[in-house]
TrEMBL record, chain A:
Segments for region (Disordered): 587-623
Keywords, in A-Z order: Cell membrane, Cytoplasmic vesicle, Disulfide bond, Ion channel, Ion transport, Membrane, Sodium, Sodium channel, Sodium transport, Transmembrane, Transmembrane helix, Transport
Name this protein carries in UniProt: Epithelial sodium channel subunit beta
Organism annotation: Regulus satrapa (Golden-crowned kinglet)
Domain of life: Eukaryota
TrEMBL record, chain B:
Protein name per Swiss-Prot or TrEMBL: SCNNG protein
NCBIfam families, per the entry: ENaC (TIGR00859)
Transport recorded as keyword: yes
Gene designation per UniProt: Scnn1g
Species this chain originates from: Regulus satrapa
Primary subcellular site in the record, as a coarse category: membrane
Catalysis performed (reactions): Na(+)(in) = Na(+)(out)
Any Gene Ontology CC annotation: sodium channel complex
Length: 623, 648
């Protein structure tokens, strides 16, 4: 009962619109709305009415058009950047220090002996020394097994179509039987031009061979040596490789951070496939990262290193120096990409400016916060390091390599259950690797699947160098350092091995570019409101008013439709009367049986405003 | 007959759309009406408020709101042309930039001997005269002996001088005689260094050839600078006379300079390099110049995948006076950018591996009206002499060259030739050096207007370089490396290479992140209007409709009222005057012209004539449209509601 009463009341309330007809409703709306235009339409004379009508229409359409633009702008998720620059106490970057040479030659010599003898003999052949002074005739015969897997050849390209391929050890000439790939290096104009190539066959004895050719013998030899030594060293277990590399106590001679002394124990050892043992200062893995709150060299990290250049592997790396890199805590150092050299016999000062870029993630830009949404399995996570684009690219390559060649490349970490490639187990790996490496498609796949990180930190370095130690101080410095390291009174260091490094924050140590959303929901609302207000003086309430009017007009429509239906029925009934004139008797009682059309004018529907207040319905108490 | 339909239409229009006058007969009424009916808040308060104080307060508040709106909107307008900066980072395959490599020494000294022998002799003589330096007794003796016979006149014209500052006399190089110096003294070196202590300053004097009293003396605090500058002056003179083809031959060939080349894991050779002749650096070679239409790109960062070259720097063949440092110069630039090696090159050391890591940044500024930069350089009135896309540097150099051609009649050697001009040389333009120095001085002091004309380019690409050096070849690999490289160089070169003749260079992308810094308009028209709307709405709940209202009421209506009143007054005055018997004024005629009246359609001229109270007082009925009635109904409409509320 109560419910019904309530419903009836609600109906009445809804029905209690401002007019009976559309016109009445519209006039009422125009007169009472809070938007500015419509009132003018009805208040002015006929000519102005017309003007105001068009003006209102124009403004309304302008408002909608501009709203469209604003919403579009909002949905395009623009960002604005703000730049801040200055000095603040910051985490000192992690500093990775490596030797350009991965292993001590004295340690790996037994492994590489065969290879070295081969390359020496090959060089002798290439350089064609005068036959008279061959002194190493007595040396044991060369083991050509390694050679036969990937031989070095000379390619004579005088005749473009039929290059003559000359194996350095077997002097038989095989004319152009194998397919040539790679860039043609020869030049027809030069008289006696020969290129070198190395020959990688996919399988022993098969015809599917590729010559990678080089215009320079130096490059060819280096590349060949790297391929061979990679294959040899990949069989050595990791702890053995770590042992063969440079030890922290031999390499890091002195360390000073700010005013506090530090030593090689403050460095975290990591095995880097390119550079052997690397040592990371302030990596932040085990302990809290160090802060630096003062600019200037006095408050930075000062290191003295020894790279012992005499112990370099001669054919592997021709550049000598320390390789170092500044990077964020808990990130893996990719020295080949971001590393810099420090030269022996010099003091290198590096002023650091931290260049940060903080970006908003999706949907503002397509970057990843921690790499969890990247479809590539991050192989560097075994080092407990954070995601980076370099890690992603390398993991992607290694995954491809494992998929296609069946083994992992020595320079990248291994997925589970896979071994490193070597010549014995995977005789075709070098071919597979070099074709994969030069495949542009593979690179593009990796570029497409990897995403950059949202927070990009770069360390901008200002590098300057000076000779160190000076001639006057050389003597005592070498003495002390040798004594401290080897406990000997002999000088075991020299200019070719010693490096001094100063790494410190510059006067301005950070430059942060941070993004913020250019368009927020607040911005959108205030702009929408601004537009509506500017053209029509409207607000959300006006929209609600408009909605109300629509509901009212719907009611009027419904009432009209009902009225029309009833009228139709009546007319039909009347038509029935006229048609069936003889049914008078029957029709009359029927008409009486019908209710006397009580609903035609909705009785409760009020044009109440005009009526005196006493006539108000009983439902007004709901107000 | 032709005007009949037109008249009909106007008559009909007038009938259907009758013109009514303003809403109120007098100004104060109009204001009152406006205040009561306007859509803006505040005005109504003024009228409705009771009491003087309150009304005053409302007037003040309304006025301050208006003031605030005007102030804020002006502020919005002024800040309309501001830009916001956005930085995007994109990880992608990057185009490798062009890398231009030059030997620091422009031409092989051995090949230049025939052109420079005289100059060198002169220089050596100067060294001996002033500093008592001689590198080999016999050589200098001979040169001294030779001098008298071969000395050409232009060396005599611009000799090196030793100046005694206080006495203003100079010892001339050749004659050894002292002579008085005229003209102003320019300290070319520095104005900070007080050269009074040193007993002698060295320099040279340039005189206007047409008017020998016009002289400028250039002095240097150090003889090193003086001799180099003087040498360069004469050197340019000589080089300007040698045709380009010969110069290209005199300089290094690609085979001379490049020993090995390796890019992106593959071998490359001299065909990947484009020759580019630089006036001061001789033959330079540009890797990936994009000349054959293809630009190489890198899809992997890191030192192995960039460009690695070993350069052969033939130190023995260096010009001892022109260049005093050894090595190569490189510059990383965009393919359509001109490499200004002499200005922004990076020097490469010999016997070392220089590794250069690049980081790519692209920037774009908004051009006018946001900032004063140029998109293509087409709007700069300076002809681009370089065959490359516009840059500020190009503009400045072109501007200077143009000024040089205009005032000196010939072109400076270090910059390209404008059409129809030729390089300055002493034979044809004996005056050019003086002219050049004068002009250059003006240019540096920004008196030529070049710095004002030239604008910076709106978009530019920048490769930030991180340079580090390692020893190369390492002591243990030195032996085989040099042997193999000598073999590479070719058997014809029978000597083993020296490591100080070699430089190893690696140029690579540190990462493939491209930073794009762009300016965007901070405001669009939409946002400006929104902000206007926000301000108008906040202070007065006003909108464009209100603005139209204000225009209507304050300008059209009140003007019409004022005009009407003036008209009435004039009429009154006229009727008084007319009674005294005078000719009607001209305006009256215009008003009475029936054609005129008919054509005058809507606004206030017709409105003017509406009430026409002849002589009676004003209380004529107000125009029917005037709605105090409406107001009353509005109140009665509101009344029931309030009553209704009161009842309950």
């Amino acid at each position: 009962m109560n419910l019904k009463k309530y419903l009836v009341r609600a109906l009445h309330r809804l029905q209690k619109g401002p007019g009976y007809t559309y016109k009445e409703l519209l006039v009422w709306y125009c007169d009472n709305t809070n938007t500015h235009g419509p009132k003018r339409i009805i208040k002015e004379g006929p000519k102005k009415k017309l003007i105001w009508f068009f003006l209102t229409l124009l403004f309304a359409s302008l408002v909608f058009w501009q709203w469209g633009i604003l919403i579009n702008t909002y949905l395009s998720y623009n960002v604005t950047s703000s730049l801040s620059i200055g000095f603040k106490t910051m985490k000192f970057p992690a500093v990775t220090i490596c030797n350009a040479n991965p292993f001590k030659y004295s340690e790996v010599r037994p492994l590489l002996q065969e290879l070295d003898r081969l390359i020496e003999a090959a060089l002798e052949r290439i350089l064609q020394p005068t036959p008279g002074n061959s002194t190493d005739d007595v040396s044991p015969p060369l083991n050509l097994e390694l050679w036969n897997q990937i031989p070095l050849v000379l390619i004579d390209e005088h005749d473009k179509d039929h290059p003559v391929i000359l194996d350095i050890f077997e002097t038989n000439q095989t004319a152009g039987g194998n397919e040539m790939l790679g860039t043609a290096g020869g030049n027809q104009h030069s008289e006696d031009y020969e290129t070198m190539g190395n020959d990688t066959c996919s399988h022993q004895g098969s015809d599917n061979c590729t010559y990678r050719n080089f215009t320079s013998a130096a490059q060819a030899v280096t590349e060949w040596y790297i391929l061979q030594s990679t294959s040899i060293l990949s069989k050595v277990p990791l702890h053995e490789r770590i042992r063969m590399g440079y030890q922290a106590e031999d390499m890091i001679l002195a360390c000073l951070y700010g005013a506090e002394p530090c030593n090689y124990k403050n460095f975290t050892q990591i095995y880097h496939p390119d550079h052997g043992n690397c040592y990371i200062f302030n990596w932040g893995m085990d302990e809290e990262a160090l802060n630096s709150s003062n600019p200037g060299a006095e408050f930075g990290l000062k290191l003295i290193l020894d790279i012992s250049q005499q112990d370099y592997i001669p054919y592997l790396s021709s550049a000598a120096g320390a390789r170092l890199m500044l990077h964020q805590q808990k990130s893996f150092p990719f020295l080949k990409d971001q590393g810099i050299y420090a030269m022996a016999g010099t003091e290198t000062s590096i002023g650091v400016l931290v260049d940060e870029l903080e970006r908003m993630g999706y949907p503002y830009s397509d970057c990843t916060m921690n790499g969890s949404d990247v479809p590539v399995k991050n192989l560097y996570s075994q080092y407990n390091t954070s995601y980076s684009i370099q890690a992603c690219l390398r993991s992607c390559f290694q995954n491809h390599m494992v998929e296609i060649c069946g083994c992992g490349h020595y320079l990248f970490p291994l997925p589970e259950g896979v071994n490193y490639c070597n010549n014995e187990d995977n005789p075709g790996w070098a071919y597979c690797y070099s074709s994969l490496r030069s495949s542009i498609k593979q690179r593009q796949i990796c570029i497409d699947s990897c995403k950059e990180t949202c927070n990009d930190t770069q360390y901008k370095m200002t590098i300057s160098m000076a000779d160190w130690p000076s001639e006057a101080s050389e003597d005592w410095i070498f003495h002390i350092l040798s004594y401290e390291r080897d406990m000997s009174t002999n000088v075991t260091l020299d200019r070719n091995g010693i490096i001094k490094l100063n790494i410190y924050f510059q006067e301005y140590n950070y430059r942060t570019i941070s993004e913020s959303a250019a368009t927020t929901i607040v911005w959108l609302l205030s702009s929408l409101g601004g537009q509506f207000g500017f053209w029509m003086g409207g607000s959300v309430l006006c929209l609600i008013e408009f909605g109300e009017i629509i509901i009212d007009s719907l009611w009027i429509t419904i009432i009209n439709v009902i009225g029309w239906c009833k009228g139709l029925k009546q007319r039909r009934a009347r038509a029935a009367h006229t048609n069936l004139g003889f049914q008078h008797e029957g029709a009359v009682p029927r008409a009486q049986a019908l209710p006397p059309e009580p609903g035609t004018p909705p009785p409760n529907y009020d044009s109440l405003r005009v009526q005196p207040p006493a006539a108000l319905g009983p439902d007004s108490d709901a107000d | 007959a032709a005007t009949a339909p037109g008249k009909k239409i106007t008559a009909r229009l007038k009938r259907t759309l009758p013109v009514r006058g303003p809403q109120a007969p007098t100004l104060s009424e109009l204001m009152r009406w406006y205040c009561l009916n306007t859509n803006t808040h505040g005005c109504r308060r003024i009228v409705v408020s009771r009491g003087r104080l309150r009304r005053l307060l409302w007037i003040l508040l309304t006025l301050s709101a208006v003031g605030l709106i005007l102030w804020q909107c002006a502020e919005l307008l002024m800040n309309y042309y501001s830009a916001s900066v956005s930085v995007t980072v994109q990880f992608q395959k990057l185009p490798f930039p062009a890398v231009t490599i030059c030997n620091i020494n422009p031409y092989k000294y051995s090949a230049m001997k025939e052109y420079l022998s005289e100059l060198d002799k002169e220089t050596k003589k100067a060294l001996e005269t002033f500093y008592g330096f001689s590198e080999g007794k016999s050589k200098v003796r001979r040169s001294v002996d030779d001098w008298n016979s071969t000395g050409s006149d232009f060396f005599q014209q611009i000799p090196l001088l030793k100046v005694e500052d206080f006495a203003r006399t100079a010892t001339e190089l050749h004659s050894g005689q002292k002579r008085k110096i005229e003209g102003s003294v320019f300290h070319k070196d520095s104005s900070i260094v007080n050269s009074g202590d040193s007993n002698d300053i060295i320099g040279f004097q340039l005189c206007d050839a047409n008017n020998s009293s016009e002289c400028a003396l250039y002095t240097f605090s150090s003889g090193v600078n003086a001799i180099q500058e003087w040498y360069k002056l004469h050197y340019m003179n000589i080089m300007a006379q040698i045709p380009l083809e010969t110069k290209e031959k005199l300089s290094y060939s690609a085979d001379d300079l490049l020993l090995t080349c390796f890019f992106d894991g593959l071998s490359c050779d001299k065909r990947h390099f484009t020759r580019f002749h630089h006036p001061l650096h001789g033959n330079c070679y540009t890797f990936n110049s994009g000349e054959n239409g293809t630009v190489l790109s890198t899809s992997t960062g890191g030192s192995e995948y960039g460009l690695q070259v070993v350069l052969y720097i033939d130190e023995a063949d260096y010009n001892p006076f022109l260049v005093t440092s050894t090595g190569a110069k490189i510059i990383v630039h965009d393919q359509d950018e001109y490499p200004f090696i002499e200005d922004i090159g990076t020097e490469i050391e010999t016997a070392a591996a220089t590794s250069i890591g690049m980081h790519f940044t692209r920037s774009r500024k908004l051009s006018k009206p946001y900032s004063d930069c140029t998109e293509t350089g087409a709007d700069i009135p300076v002809e681009n002499l370089y065959n490359k896309s516009y840059s500020l540097q190009i503009c400045l150099h072109s501007c200077f060259q143009k000024a040089m051609v205009d005032s000196c009649g010939c072109a400076q050697y270090a910059q390209p030739l404008p059409a129809g001009a030729e390089y300055c040389n002493y034979k044809k333009n004996p005056n050019w050096m003086y002219c050049y120095y004068r002009l250059h001085e003006k240019f540096v002091k920004e008196q030529l207007g070049c710095q004002q004309i030239c604008k910076d380019a709106c978009s530019f690409k920048e490769w930030a370089l991180t340079t580090s050096i390692a020893q190369w070849p390492s002591t243990v690999s030195e032996d085989w490396m040099l042997r193999v490289l000598s073999w590479d160089k070719g058997q014809k070169l029978n000597k083993k290479l020296n490591k100080t003749d070699l430089a190893n260079l690696m140029v690579f992308y540190k990462d493939l992140n491209e930073r794009f810094i762009s300016e965007n308009p901070a405001n669009t028209l939409v946002i400006l209007l929104s902000n206007f709307g926000g301000q108008l709405g906040l202070w007065m709940s006003c909108s464009v409709v209100c603005v139209i209202e204000i225009v209507e009421v304050f300008f059209i209506d009140s003007l019409s009222i004022v005009m009407r009143r003036q008209w009435q007054r004039a009429k009154k005055w006229w009727s008084q005057r007319g009674s005294s018997g005078r000719a009607p004024p001209a305006e009256r005629q215009g008003q009475e012209n029936p054609a005129c009246v008919d054509e005058d359609l809507p606004t206030f001229t017709t409105a003017l004539r509406l009430p026409l109270p002849q002589d009676g007082p004003l209380p004529r009925t107000p125009p029917p449209n005037y709605s105090t009635l409406r107001l009353e109904t509005a109140f009665t409409e509101q009344l029931p509601d309030t009553l209704e509320l009161g009842q309950h």
